[in-house]
Amino acid sequence: MESEEIKIGVYVCHCGINIGSTVDVEQVRDSVSELPNVSISRDFKYMCSDPGQALIRKDIEERGLNRVVVAACSPRMHEPTFRKTIQQAGLNPYCVEIANIREQCSWVHEDKADATDKAVKLVCSAVAKASLLEPLEEKEVEIAPRALVIGAGIAGIQASLDIADAGFQVYLVEREPSIGGHMAQLDKTFPTLDCSACIMTPKMVEVERHPNIELLTYSKVIEVGGYIGNFNVKVKKKPRYINMDRCTGCGLCAEACRLKGRITSEFDVGMGKRSASYIPFPYAVPSKYTIDAEHCLFLTKGKCGKSPACKDACTADAVEFEQKEEIVELDIGTIVVATGFDLFDATEKPEYGYGLYDNVLSGLEFERLVSSSGPTQGKIAIGGKDPKDVVFVQCVGSRDKSVGNEYCSRVCCMYTAKQAYLIHEKLPDARLTIFYIDIRAFGKGFEEFYDRVREEGVRYIRGNVSEIIKKGDRLLVMAEDTLLGEPIDVEADLVVLATGIVPRADVRELMNLLKISQSPDGFLLEAHPKLRPVDTASDGIYIAGCCQGPKDIPDTVAQAKGAASSAMTKMSQGKVKVEAIIASVDPFICRGCGRCVEACEYGAPELQEAEPGILVSEVNDSLCKGCGACAVACPCRAISMKHFKNEQIFSQIEAVI
Amino acid sequence: MSLEEIIKDTKAYYCLGCGVCTSSCPVARVIPSFSPRLLVEKALFGFGDEIISDKDLWSCLICGRCASRCPSGVDYLNFVREMRMEALSKGKEGLLAHDGILNTIMELQSLNLKQDRNFWITDDLEVADAGEYFYFVGCLPYFDLVFGEGGLCDVGIRSIERARNTVRILNKIGIKPVVSNNERCCGHDLLWNGDLEGFKRLAELNLKTIKESGAKKVICVCPEGYVTLKRDYPRFLGEQDIEVIQLCQILADELREGKLKFLENASVDYKKVTFHDPCSLGRIAEIYEEPREIISSIPGIELVEMERNRVDAVCCGTSGWVNCSGCSKKIQTERLKEAEETGADALITACPKCEIHLNCAKYNADLKIRIKDITDLVAESLA
Amino acid sequence: MNKGFEPNIVGFACNWCSYAGADLAGTSRIKYPPNIKIIRVMCTGRVTPAFILKSFQNGADGVLVAGCHPGDCHYIAGNLKCEKIMDVVKRLVGILGIGKERLRLEWVSASEGGRFADVVTEFTEQVRELGPLSGKSQG
Ligand SMILES: Cc1cc2nc3c(=O)[nH]c(=O)nc-3n(C[C@H](O)[C@H](O)[C@H](O)COP(=O)(O)OP(=O)(O)OC[C@H]3O[C@@H](n4cnc5c(N)ncnc54)[C@H](O)[C@@H]3O)c2cc1C
Ligand code: SF4
Ligand code: SF4
Ligand code: SF4
Ligand code: SF4
Ligand code: FES
What we know:
The complex is a heterotrimer. By secondary structure, chain A is of the alpha/beta class.
């Protein structure tokens, strides 16, 4: 408080000869001893050593110092050390200021007089700031032992299982009627060729049965408030029009549906048909039917024959047209985002004829075609005939600035190799050609798998396909063989495009909801590309799987486990320390203009109605990261940025010049 | 100055303790603990230290509502100014809005720097280096960078258009004014924030510049600049051989003489307007009728009055860029609502600062009324 | 002034990139002129225009603001906010007669110790060329 007399101890370190050889330490010590508020100034060989720290503690105890200035190495080096030192002596850890006279003085200057002069100014500046330093409070908030996982592809499934196994409650929100994501659509998986369903189904079932997992399918997160430890989440459950408890998954309703075989199946990416009452795929979890309100005759027209056929057919009396959407509110400690990816829409490259010619397929369509659970039960036939020539085109929508995707989708080289192999297994006589720019076989077992595919006689041609046109009832694929340096045309009965992985179309909506950001490629942004790959800029929110960037299943699973472990670590700590260096608003000065709200990247300040019609900003301690942008934006100085207050910095400016 | 001297200088000893000042004060209406009466009484009881450590010393708007009604003629404004001088000498100052940049900009102008403040003069404007009339532009170039579009605190105004429009109007009535790159801030805010020395430095530089141009008449548009040059320069630097005129006075004269003509149906954008008296133009300089005459003679405009007008008008809520706060916002919001209640579609003001502060209050608020400066309005309506 | 003019330069460096870059110049023992004195801020987004103007008012001949490269700001976009503000402040110091050339905004990452030293050396020379700001520093 104002009445407290400030007593500063200044400690100038020699750092052996690291400082002492270029800076006259004694002179620095003496020139600051008379500054206002300085009650003692000393020098010492190594301030960070035990005796050095003991010296400070002793002075605090004996001389009643309440602020400390250490002139030594960079604060990035030993600020934490000295904070602890003074804390041990009973001072608030934020009452120490470091003058960096090593990295930013003795090590970069040669002339001793100049360096000493500068060191004195740096210490003056530190003393000036120390005189105005204020004790700061380090607060803690409790973390609710409940996690929200958004998206139930393999990433979300794995993260949920790990967190639930560790004993925390998990709410797994999936917007489709079934969990599984893209992996459920795949046939076999590279490089080991395990059947996707075989390795995935047990995990899906485990999710459903796990006592710590509450599955919210056909649901969407619509609101996220609060902060780490205490997120308030609202989830909207869409009506399925089928009673989940009664439905036995028998499928009589779908059989009876008047629209049977007339609605395009999303799961089969347009290759198959379904009823209005449907289950996306046979081993869906939950194994319950859903009536699609967009198509159902009764729900769209109010009438389905004399009475709805499904309702009549259901022996369990599970059809409930009166169901309404439901909002579930959750108190959540940590959040894992695992919303996956969208497939590149190949119509964006019209030169490939996708969408125009039936025998040009996307990578995912081919997965459904070749899958034994797919619309053709795995039979590959084009116009009723086995294809003789199949061409694969790599890098469709990846590494392609013309469609705005500069990045590599990382899975297409390998899934193309896999798909070629799968055709070869089924149709050994088919001639298979793959056009590629580079082969990226970087993963474990990838190069070996690539070799194996080539050994089976698949022809790899280096060159990007420029155009695909119709030639009779076949296709003509045109490219340049860049290794031979000559144009090449290949005729084909079937062309498979290795369509890439793109960010979810609604990624912005999610970003706004969670206040997280995206990287230039459009995928969700991690807190640090190398060291914090599963964290986001918002504490307590983690990302896993293809929402963060293209990756294969092993990497997805690894990242999911990483995100789960980060979430678990926080939840098992039970509490988090809140940043002490944060912004705070003086409610009487605040004009309620909201400029701070606009400036903050973390949604920390919020306008509250203090009295009718009077808005006042309040900074949420747990969200504020202490960047200071709001303080700069505030027109009337209602915000003070703790530890970097205007007065403190002004005093440094005055002292340093 | 000692407390006794301040009391003597401002006739504070005449205070009857009646409280008319406090009940007239717009700040006291929002901050109940703020009381001009108590401040004066504290001084009379010798509690000078208490006054200078009170941060509310800096909340006074220097609007003069209290002084204009004080039955004993206590010079409350100078009382506050002198108390602030004392406070400043003890290292205490108010909370400067915008982190103090506007105040620092003023202070920096007293250094010997060669400004580049005339960037706004376009080819169509006729200005001179020497001549009879000196147009005192004031802080408009700086305001534009701070509060103009893309500025540091964008409140959606174009202050610099004011300068251009002023020259256009003056050219129209046959005046080719001197506009000097050496002009400085008039010093108003430094003076009223208690920095007499800083004020004097600026004033001296300005007087030198004006004299060097040979001008005998100084035209001010900003009311604060006007009262500062007219009243405070002589007071603190001695009588000067220059005549200081406010633009509205010239315009009203020209109108009366029929020399100023407006377009038929000049105003399409504004049909019904109300006039907000800036404190310095109104209560301090007592120029109430000229702006009203000017506005009313623009064809197509109807002038209506707010409940509180002329000597009773209420301040735009902030002064000297000090202690701007939620209190200021309330005063501003209330004033704008008062203007809206007249049914006017614009509030006309004659002070660049009123324009800034009132527009600032509109930021993210649900206030529809437009704010327009009288000079811009005149320039746009001229035949 | 007998001895050549030695400019007074104030630097504002963000904790995460440029301050660390300056530290790296130190650890790598790269030499640069001693005229600059750095004040640490968490982010360049904290650098309010008043810091710059106050520095000049107090006698600085030059001010350097250094932060993370675009995209690298620890607080997402503090550096970009700063850049926007500095554009205006440059115009402001221009019309005040201080001169835009005395104010610099640079991006220096934590790994660019050499670049930090280069920037400081070059800026110091530039300000030396410009001569003293006829403010307080002249005495
Ligand atoms: C054609 C093709 C073949 C492939 N073949 C292989 C292979 O052989 N081997 C291999 O290792 N990898 C392969 N991959 C890659 C593999 O598909 C991915 O690594 C994996 O599916 C990524 O899983 P995910 O959980 O991150 O995303 P996804 O599988 O996309 O799952 C995301 C889930 O989140 C849900 N969701 C999205 N947004 C929301 C929201 N807002 N709210 C609630 N839920 C939401 C979705 O409905 C979905 O269920 C292939 C990819 C493609 C395109
Ligand atoms: S300091 Fe930064 S993080 Fe904190 S409220 Fe202000 S802008 Fe937001
Ligand atoms: S920017 Fe300042 S005045 Fe505006 S709402 Fe935020 S704290 Fe209040
Ligand atoms: S001058 Fe205005 S704001 Fe100041 S005390 Fe008087 S009435 Fe109140
Ligand atoms: S009212 Fe005026 S001083 Fe206050 S914040 Fe707005 S522009 Fe700045
Ligand atoms: S943290 Fe370096 S500029 Fe923001």
